[in-house]
Structures are given as structure tokens and as C-alpha cells.
Amino acid sequence: MKRVVVTGMAxxxxxxxxxxxxxxxxxNAKTGIVRMDDWDKYDGLNTxxxxxxxxxxxxxxxxxxxxxxxxxxxxxxxxSSERALKDANLLGKDVLLNxxxxxxxxxxxxxxxxxxxxxxxxxxxxxxxxxxxxxxKMMAHTSPVNIGIYFGLKGRxxxxxxxxxxxxxxxxxxxxxxxxxxxxxxxxxxxERLCASEAAVFDTLYATSVRxxxxxxxxxxxxxxxxxxxxGEGGGTLILEELEHALERxxxxxxxxxxxxxxxxxxxxxxxxxxxxxxxxxxxxxSAQISPRDIGYISAHxxxxxxxxxxxxxxxxxxxGRDTPISSFKSxxxxxxxACGALEAWTAIEMMKNKWFHATANLNDVxxxxxxxxxxxxxxREIDTQYIMSNNFAFGGINTSLIFxxxxxxxx
Length: 412
Known about the structure:
By secondary structure, this protein is α/β, with parallel strands linked by helices. The protein has helices at 19-27, 64-67, 72-87, 112-124, 134-138, 142-151, 166-179, 196-203, 243-249, 274-288, 306-320, 330-333, 340-354; strands spanning 4-12, 34-35, 49-51, 101-106, 157-159, 185-192, 231-232, 234-242, 255-264, 295-300, 325-328, 356-357, 374-375, 381-382, 387-394, 398-406. It is 33% helix and 21% strand. It has an eleven-stranded mixed β-sheet with strand order 5-4-6-8-1-9-16-15-10-11-13, with helices on both faces. Helix 3 crosses helix 6 (142-151). The radius of gyration is 20 Å and the shape is globular.
């Protein structure tokens, strides 16, 4: 089996589009949640809260021809991947063009503007707004396909459109492709654009926060006073690479990916099951060939919904007890859906390198129904650990767990 390392990382999030900015927000407990005044026009929508990415635009070197097949969701994916490839010193390298590099990437759905154009056809019997690229922007695999075409990849393409586990499944499948010798490099991650329709999905389940005039006080993962999640947007990419290939290039290695576990509940589309969440974590630990005691930090899925928080925390307690520090990145960014797994893995790796981990924003009073864990509250914590775990759980009962190991120079 091949060893798999992370050689490039980049992304766009509601609290920053580079690590320095994100780190500053985390240290100062400054979230990216805002009131979406434009959503006032939607009759029956209860939440007015969202977490947009600001200061995002495609660089001038992207031509009109390049962009015609990319909606905002694919743009997040392609530009995140370009930045991550640059970080890995892989832009323009032969490995991207000779079939040894592939992509595993996803989002909950394609671009919602393109979906609306097809909706106009079905509702109003008019093809106004439709063109040759409408479907390309709408399709579930719009991001991996646009990434593959823009960078000329000739390896395998995995489309991981699995809602909240889109990015983490992408990272896991990319890991397996390299581990089993099928590819040397994989572009992995996920993306999502913010849209009122995505907020409505959770609004109909009474799962959105309605603290519409207090955006800075929500979401509140694991807190007994939480009232639901907030939807965000963004994109994140990890470049995974076979260890020997990375060492031959002399490139910086951010971390080693050593464990991946995934399974499904097989019981209910929207009600998570603690038992299979627990099993996914144990599968990841078994894959890494370590003990739960070796893991020094857990990046929680932590959406701030009652069912989700309780099931996840109880599953985590069953594996780790109360001694392993845990916090939720979504308390700062909202739920970025298809992007969250990549953004959370990137953030957790950077924190492991810095030996500092953020607290969960707005967590003041832990819900007694949640598992008795070592929640990082109020302020960040200095932790020196060799292993971190990043967990995500999605509609349909899809569970994922990733384990990253700190990279030391003498490991190669």
C-alpha cells in the first residue's frame, strides 16, 4: 500500500480566503454569519441568516471561454484547486497531463441559477435563459468536470455529490485511489454556493436558526440554547500525493492522511444514527492502525441541530470518552454543505501545524443531552498532537471520518 500525503491546500470560506485571515477570525471569535436582507422577498422562509464568501472573483487569466461552463459553485472548485496546485508546486507539471492525476470532488448540487433556468422552462413553458452550457452548470458533477478540463487531467474522475459529506468523501476516495496505486496525484474536495433554496431545505425541517437580528450569536453547536443551523458557501481543495512522488519533488508536505472510514445508517434520510456514526469513526481509526488515545483533536461536524448534535456527540463519546478536545468550525462559517469537509480538514491541518485549535463559537452552556466531551469553549487551546480526526455526516445517513497525521521531516 502507498502512503498518502497532503502537499497543497486552499479554499474560500465565509471567514476568509487564505489561512492568515481565517486564523485571525478564529482567534478573535469573529464569525461570518450575516443577515441576508435579500431573502425578505421569499414568502414563508423563516430564516434570514447566511454566511457568504466575500471578495470573490475569478482572476483575469480565466477567459470567457473558460468561464462559460462554470457557475459560482464550479468557480469555487476550480479556483480553490488552482491555488492548491500552486501550493503543491504542481501547476503545469507533466503528472497532471499523463493520466497519473485525477479528481475526486463534489457539491450538494450544481449551480442554482442554472437550475432556476430549467425551472422556468417547466413552470412557464419557456426556454428563455437556456443555452448550451445551462446543463453543464446545473449537473451534479459540474465541479469535478470543470476542474478536470481546466487542468487537463486524464486520470479518474469521482463525483461525490453526497450533501454534507461531498468533500470528505472526495478526500477519502482520492486517498484510496493513491493508496492502492491507481493514481499518483488527486485533486480532492468540495464546494457550494449560497442560495435561499438551500436554506429552505432545512427551513422546512424547522432546522434553521431564526435569530435573524442576532447573526453574531448563532449557530450554537452543542449548546442547549441553539435554535438551528445557518447555511454558508465556499470551496476547499486538498492536493493528495503519493509519498515517494512528493519526496522526489522535494515539495513541502503539510500532513499525512492515514485513515478513512465511511458507511451509511440504512435507516432514515434525515434522522442520524449514533451507532453508525460511531462505527465510521472506528473504521477510520482501524484504517490508520492507531488507538483512539492517539488522536489529540476532533473536528466535529457540529451543525447546531438538535438531532445531529446529540447523535454525533454521543457517538463521539462512545469512541473517545470525555478526554479528547473537540470543536466545530461551522460555528464560524455556517454549514457550507458540499464544501465543509474540505474546509474543515484544511483548517484542522493548519491548526495541528500551529499547535493551536479554535473554540466553538457561541458555545456557552452544553446541552445535557449531548455526550460529555471535552468541548473547547470560549477561547482557543494550545494542543500538541500527532493525529487529528475530521468527521462529517450527511442526509441519507452517510458518515465519513478522516484522520491526518502531523508530518515531521524525518518521516520520509
